[in-house]
């Protein structure tokens, strides 16, 4: 807004007059998840608090396109959705840089490559009033999305498959760019088979077995995995089977796989992983050709507080152990979190993971140097006799895997500072980041598909 001053001659008298000139409003608009979002589609954007909770904010910014709208940083969000998917609905966040909206100001949502919006045009003046009301409420310490304010909603519709990422720019009334969104290509949905194994002890009365499995609902977990989590990475989860393994508890106690906890229920050692290896062998005898992800739902608890466990390394690992206290409640965070590990994801928070992997890499490099001097030496490795050169090749592949795990999981955040499935202690995890979508898809293609 500005003021123009000019002089008038009226009846021989010179008068000075001023008139305010209303300039066009300058603004940006952002897509924003609705408060009741529950993982139904993938949406990843540069969160406002990333600069405070990220371990490497400057590098993180490179993961998002900076559209530089109206001379300011504008990081473009990623949307992943299936063709003809229902319920992809956003609120809008308005950022006014200068001026005030007039009645004829609008935001236009152009259709492109089978992507369209409903409505395809909204009033900027109405949106500005809404945003001011939301900001006022947030200033009081409330979250504007849980207030009584009626929010503008925009539905995204994908009418056909996308063979490439599609960028759509939002426009003002003069066709200036005021926002943008990238819809991820969706012409390749990956399938991942999941097999549930109920792991029981051979107790005579089945007390702890029944207590563990009475509340378990495999269909509920499949729906969670396929419609409210892994679908964000365009991964379709299918149920292969639900089977059962009954363990001889006394035999496994003698072998040191289980421990006597002083009561009727034995426990397995959390750190040794012999328990999972034992079940793995039994499962693979029964299902030698299975390829996918196996959940061992254990009625036998661990000796510690671990709710679940899955190995990120080696990448060929395909099994997850879930503790009894997570099974009956169909724990959302555990079932999704551990599958994320299986598909190559480390924790999203800052931890000593890199140091751990550096030690594993260093030990393998040392072995490579040792066996370079031992030509034609025979080595027994995992039940087979191989040459020293073959062993070196195996060690190098292991190093490559370890390096790629660390490099792929470059970005870390403050623990419990996000709603990411790979975080800890967040009350309602609902999301994966775009780079996590890419990691999981690649892992399925190479190792689990």
UniProtKB/TrEMBL annotation:
Coiled-coil stretches: 43-70
Keywords noted in UniProt: Coiled coil
Full protein name: Metallo-peptidase family M12B Reprolysin-like
Organism of derivation: Aquimarina litoralis
Organism placement in taxonomy: Bacteria, Pseudomonadati, Bacteroidota, Flavobacteriia, Flavobacteriales
């Amino acid at each position: 807004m500005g003021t123009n001053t000019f002089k008038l001659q009226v009846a021989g008298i010179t008068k000075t007059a001023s008139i305010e000139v209303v300039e066009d409003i300058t603004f940006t608009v952002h897509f924003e998840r609705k408060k009741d979002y529950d993982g139904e589609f993938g949406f990843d954007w540069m969160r406002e608090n990333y600069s405070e909770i990220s371990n490497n904010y400057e590098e993180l910014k490179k993961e998002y396109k900076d559209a530089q709208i109206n001379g300011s940083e504008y990081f473009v969000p990623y949307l992943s959705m299936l063709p003809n998917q229902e319920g992809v609905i956003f609120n809008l966040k308005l950022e006014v840089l200068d001026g005030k909206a007039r009645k004829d100001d609008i935001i236009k949502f152009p259709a492109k490559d089978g992507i369209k919006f409903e409505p395809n045009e909204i009033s900027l003046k109405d949106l500005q009033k809404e945003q001011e009301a939301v900001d006022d409420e947030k200033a009081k310490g409330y979250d504007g999305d849980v207030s009584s304010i009626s929010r503008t909603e925009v539905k995204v519709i994908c009418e056909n498959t996308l063979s490439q990422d599609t960028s759509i720019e939002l426009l003002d009334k003069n066709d200036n760019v005021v926002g943008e969104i990238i819809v991820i290509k969706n012409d390749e949905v990956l399938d991942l088979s999941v097999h549930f194994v109920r792991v029981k002890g051979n107790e005579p009365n089945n007390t702890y077995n029944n207590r563990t499995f009475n509340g378990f609902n495999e269909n509920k977990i499949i729906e969670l995995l396929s419609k409210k989590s892994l679908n964000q990475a365009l991964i379709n989860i299918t149920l292969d089977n639900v089977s059962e393994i009954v363990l001889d508890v006394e035999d496994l106690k003698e072998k040191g796989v289980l421990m006597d906890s002083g009561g009727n229920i034995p426990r397995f050692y959390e750190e040794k992983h012999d328990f999972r290896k034992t079940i793995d062998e039994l499962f693979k005898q029964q299902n030698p050709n299975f390829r996918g992800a196996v959940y061992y739902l254990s009625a036998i608890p661990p000796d510690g507080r671990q709710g679940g466990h899955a190995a990120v390394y080696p990448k060929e690992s395909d099994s997850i152990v879930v503790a009894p206290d997570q099974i009956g409640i169909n724990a959302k965070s555990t079932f999704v979190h551990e599958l994320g590990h299986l598909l190559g994801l480390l924790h999203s928070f800052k931890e000593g993971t890199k140091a751990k992997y550096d030690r594993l890499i260093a030990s393998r490099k040392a072995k490579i140097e040792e066996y370079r001097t031992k030509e034609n030496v025979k080595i027994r490795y995992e039940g087979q006799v191989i040459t020293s050169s073959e062993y070196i090749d195996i060690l190098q592949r292991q190093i490559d895997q370890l390096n790629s795990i660390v490099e792929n999981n470059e970005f870390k955040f403050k623990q419990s500072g996000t709603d990411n499935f790979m975080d800890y202690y967040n009350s309602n995890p609902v999301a994966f980041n775009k780079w996590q979508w890419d990691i999981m898809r690649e892992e399925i293609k190479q190792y689990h598909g």
